């Protein structure tokens, strides 16, 4: 396979060969790098726009051709800036979606882990044994209540007092 076809078919990345694609962390890091790069380009274009505007003002009515050229460059820079704004918006949306997907994946993994732990805990429990145990507990509580009632009732000391 030629180098050009490898490039266009995506066969060159070592990170994506073994796992079928980049990890969420790698993709997030790249998206953040791209966001930073575009933000720097935004700042650069904003300063260029200010310079061109200043140049147009400086030339004003003295050199209309130079002023018009400065305004045309300013307009081109503004168009580029607008495109970068749209691109940044798309990248931010994609990054947020990827972060949410990664969070959901982690939550699902942890829920599966908890389900396995619960299954392991419940392996030794039998529903019939639990029912029997609960009946025994209820019976013992009834007996304890009867004993408590018997102790708390007066034993006839002075109940039948004859006037």
Short précis:
With 163 residues, this protein is an all-alpha fold.
What tags apply to this protein structure?
rod-shaped, mainly alpha, disordered N terminus, protein transport, 163 residues
The end-to-end span amounts to 119 Å
Mean pLDDT across residues: 85
- CATH architecture of the domain at 24-111, by name, is Orthogonal Bundle
**Could you tell me the radius of gyration in angstroms?**
39 Å
Instruction: Provide a count of the helices.
Output: 5
Q: Tell me the CATH superfamily of the domain at 24-111.
A: ESAT-6-like
Q: Write the element-wise H/E pattern from the N-terminal end onward.
A: HHHHH
Task: Describe this structure as you would to a colleague.
- The protein is an all-alpha fold and 163 residues long.
- The protein has a domain at 24-111: Orthogonal Bundle (Helix Hairpins).
- Helices cover 82% and strands 0% of the residues.
- The protein contains five helices and no strands.
- The chain has helices spanning 3-9, 14-19, 24-59, 64-122, 127-152.
- α3 (24-59) packs antiparallel against α4.
- The termini are far apart.
- Mean pLDDT is 85; it is low at 3-8 and 10-17.
